[in-house]
Amino acid sequence: MRYTIEHDGESTPVEVRRLGTDRYLVKIGDGEARVIDAHADAQGVHLLDGAHSRRVRLADDGRSAWLGGHTVTAQALDPHAARLRARRGDTVSGGGDTVILSPMPGRIVQVQVAVGDAVVPGQGVVIIEAMKMENELRAEIAGTIASIHCQADDRVEGGAQLIVIDPAEG
Amino acid sequence: MRYTIEHDGESTPVEVRRLGTDRYLVKIGDGEARVIDAHADAQGVHLLDGAHSRRVRLADDGRSAWLGGHTVTAQALDPHAARLRARRGDTVSGGGDTVILSPMPGRIVQVQVAVGDAVVPGQGVVIIEAMKMENELRAEIAGTIASIHCQADDRVEGGAQLIVIDPAEG
Amino acid sequence: MFERVLVANRGEIAVRIMRTLRDLGISPVTVHSEADAHAVHVRMADASICVGPEASAQSYLVGERVIDAARRLGAQAIHPGYGFLSENAAFARAVTEAGLVWIGPPPEAIETMGDKLDARRTVEAAGVPVVPGVSRPARDPAEALAIATQLGFPVMLKASAGGGGKGMRLVHDEASFEAALSAARREAAGAFGNDAVYVEKFVVEPHHVEIQVMCDAHGAALYVGERECSVQRRHQKVIEECPSPFVDPDMRARMGAVAVAAAKACGYVGAGTVEFLVGGDRNFYFLEMNTRLQVEHPVTELVYGVDLVELQLRVAAGEPLGLTQADLQPRGHAIECRIYAEDPVTYLPSPGRITALTWPEGPGVRVDSGVDASSTVPMAYDPMVAKLCTWGSDRSQAIRRMGRALDETVILGITTNIGLHHRVLAHPAFAAGRYDTGLLATPLPDAPAPASGHRDAVLAAVAIAQHVADEARAVPTGAAGDALTGWRIEGHERMLRGG
Amino acid sequence: MFERVLVANRGEIAVRIMRTLRDLGISPVTVHSEADAHAVHVRMADASICVGPEASAQSYLVGERVIDAARRLGAQAIHPGYGFLSENAAFARAVTEAGLVWIGPPPEAIETMGDKLDARRTVEAAGVPVVPGVSRPARDPAEALAIATQLGFPVMLKASAGGGGKGMRLVHDEASFEAALSAARREAAGAFGNDAVYVEKFVVEPHHVEIQVMCDAHGAALYVGERECSVQRRHQKVIEECPSPFVDPDMRARMGAVAVAAAKACGYVGAGTVEFLVGGDRNFYFLEMNTRLQVEHPVTELVYGVDLVELQLRVAAGEPLGLTQADLQPRGHAIECRIYAEDPVTYLPSPGRITALTWPEGPGVRVDSGVDASSTVPMAYDPMVAKLCTWGSDRSQAIRRMGRALDETVILGITTNIGLHHRVLAHPAFAAGRYDTGLLATPLPDAPAPASGHRDAVLAAVAIAQHVADEARAVPTGAAGDALTGWRIEGHERMLRGG
Description:
Radius of gyration of chain A: 22 Å
Oligomer: heterotetramer
Number of domains of chain C: 3
CATH architecture of the largest domain in chain A: Beta Barrel
Low-confidence stretches of chain A: 89-96
Number of domains of chain A: 2
Largest interface: C-D, 60 and 60 residues
Helix content of chain A: under 10%
Largest sheet of chain C: 8 strands, antiparallel
Order of helices and strands of chain A: EEEEEEEEHEEEEEEEE
Shape of chain A: elongated
CATH superfamily of the largest domain in chain A: RNA polymerase II/Efflux pump adaptor protein, barrel-sandwich hybrid domain
Distance between the termini of chain C: 46 Å
Mean pLDDT of chain C: 91
Structural class of chain C: alpha+beta
Strand order of the largest sheet of chain A: 1-2-3-4-5-6-7-8
Distance between the termini of chain A: 48 Å
Radius of gyration of chain C: 24 Å
Strand order of the largest sheet of chain C: 13-12-9-10-11-14-19-17
Strand content of chain A: over 45%
Low-confidence stretches of chain C: 476-499
Largest sheet of chain A: 8 strands, antiparallel, barrel
Number of strands of chain C: 20
Mean pLDDT of chain A: 84
Shape of chain C: globular
Number of helices of chain C: 16
């Protein structure tokens, strides 16, 4: 079987064939196919690749993984999603630097800019409160405020679009 | 929905109706139906029955449960199995005292009796080795050895029938 | 001793208190918000009553409902934990008036120490050194600025009713003063319902060192060593240790004596913490007294071999401490890393559902967690999900064991600050035990890089897991025998689809 | 210090040793049988090599394959743990001859102490008291019976090459002597490949108390207190504690001095345990010396504040201990409950797949486990799956905490002896600290009864879980968005169907 695995925003084709109980032939991207002893259970997957032992924990929603103290996003895409991603040229992120997204669910305390204001990198634009702490979201680029999609006291979801900035030229 | 729950060898009908998120109407056997706040997740089921808080862990094979330091066998039977059990009159166990079953997978070290031997309760009949320890299986009743289904050096599974005893009269 | 005690809190501290209750054969009961009906602290209790909706102001903070729950559940005493109602003198008084035992200091002591300026005046009178500053809220921005200018920048702005870093601002110069003041007042108003802010001299190379005190109702007042709490971000503690690498036995004895004097000055009974600001010159100044169990109390327990919650319960039940100052000798070294559901770089909270969880085990490791492998970390409450502590026969062993414990810890689904802890442990100043509260503002070492082959291993593991799942789908269902064994799996799948 | 060490073991002790290796920044590698390729000790290691099929005689016990694996993996030293090759002098010698460091005592010391009769002769010459008996294997059953009759019944039969209770039999009278002797010889032959058995006087009201010793290669030889190991079934330890409630400071000092003399008599280096049989009259007799890390070493670590594995590694690397006898002072009390996969009443092993697992946490709890929530406990190896330890400032607190820790522990799928531990903790003789090795032969208190409503709660929980699963089945699949999220669930389901 051929899978498309997304790992920290990058998609890679991985082919897997079962050779026996807990033994697989695995080919990653353009690499050589090789035999890996592996066991999958509710704790994740344990790999014995040659003598190398690697324990990979997998989230129960199949969206992230842990290995040796490091956490990464990693998931298998279904064929349709993989094709879509391929057509889009592998862009995963949202609006890039020009859009300020809410990093978490929370309550808007204050919008510190108005449409048309010029902003510089590092300038605070919105204060959001979550878990009893205020957090200031800052512009990452210089530009002009193009639109504002929230106001004080709004409850917003994580990932909500709050502010759009027109990048300054140059 | 009506379920048949087997709990430590005894089958009980239990009716469950969902009233809302994490809220159920539950009727156990002939008891009164009552509202229980409950949440089921991979850790099992947490019940708030009135103010009483009870955390029930469930095995991932759905065959046993843990509550407050106590472990019990407990599982939901499918309708077919429940009917079968009902017809058999709720007997779950194997051959009762007349059959010596292997309590675990292991290797037979020695058969200490022959067909036709008289045995008394507590008398050793078979020595089985597992996990590097020898364990002597004893007759629980007085009687005569009717048949022997193993010999020294046999590897046997847990639950295998080893010896059948004809109970003595009286 | 009590037969049943209500823990008026949630999360790790509620669980931790319940463990000592269980140790003593006392039935733990609790309260919960609507969002917490199946939270870990409720699962661990024998009984719990809902006291209101998710917002703590409408549930955990509504004193009369908590007292009513204690009565209905037959509890004889209430333990408030930290936060929530723990430093609310009116609540403490209401608990006593309801005929229940308040597991905490007398309301008068809470009141005196709850207002930072009152506290300053009280301890100053008892000969306790305080930070240079003006011991009353500034009347208006102009007066605040005048005080700041007189003390000389940098200055600290502090919420009069505050704690936990909320409403605090360090101001380096006049230009940024006004904005900082209004932010501090807004945060103070939101957190404490009181926007009074006062101005203090900022001590250079500041250490945050605190002394644990323990007093009984029979006149015994002891100190149980100090904790070094200088690893802070946004004035919130991240890593604490006991003993402080900055404090020697002589300094410990002097700070301990001053802390006991401060406790006695307000008629203290129970467990409390006297916080000091210590300069690079080792002069120390009273900051505030926390009239409750402290988040970081486990490091003291590990080094001094006491159970502070058990002592709280015994003192509240009227028993004498049964200890002398000489009984309280430190052994070895302990470190605590607070595990927050937050981004390790931006410090932004990261609530969500936990999708994999494993805590470390083995020699020298203590875990106090408030979540399990199926928990959702809600947005409404504190983002701390657990405290990892390690003990070692010396500081080096404690630090090395902490590195291992952090490596063993698996938390997926929410972002945590485990990476930050690794970077602090690797910081030369931290490793040498020479750091002040500015540590996290200095450049931190890079997080350790993944081992070679890391990426390929993850890709292979995810693909193999998917392959095993696909194979399973191809097998016809219903072949499992005479029991319906799939409940957990299916329930789980539904949860995923449902979000 | 070493950069990479091979742990030639499996289960909890391999994991425990690897934790200290990680603490010291040493890469842990290991070996495994075909059945253990994905066992917990392999998961925890950086690398592992298969050394043969499931049977330990064909894998873990094949010394040359273990040494070959260490070479191929670039290890500089081998830690044998306990059991397996740990007391095999020929293996220790082969390790050294292969240019690797043996983390254990000199082969000569293993040889001397490995043969119980040699050991008796050696320590007797050093003035160490031994149990009355005949210090050589009986030539035939007739001679054995003659010795037994001369010593007077009851007598103990012991395997000359033995340990861990295998090949041991207590014989009360002449009538049962012959059957017991042949059983002991058969068990000895099976376990040690040597059926030599000798006869010893049985000490009345016997306590099993052992002294931990630690020696370096520079002449330092210290004792690290004692452990009380009298809670035994079939001569296997079930619960251990430190200190022994039966030993006072004077007796500890005398036993410690004798243990150090025994260690010196065989030129000991490293960690070892001198086991004593102590009579109700407090006379103590040398039983044997275990020339390796002991299963129950964590209770010593908790009370004496040392990491015995770290000390083993430092001594093996040639470092001096850097400790004096005065540095080793006990603090508080620790208890260990061994969690066996076995029936708590019949003591029969219960291998199988673990279907739910949660270990306890919180103050005073240490867990050393060799399984995880997806492990299968194989039949081929020792049935011990974990060790739960609790520490308390006194014995009472340690016992109370153990009760709580056992209550928090969830293990489904295999039968464990947790119920037995509860019954021992509740035994008046145990609670009072007045018990001998006959404790488990006395009637035990009943296990605590489930709380009222227990049955209904289980029935409701199972039915609700099934209902949630049925609802999920009714929802059409494939609505989960753009990722295949079901891998774990499906993989899991397959495992269930596959058995």
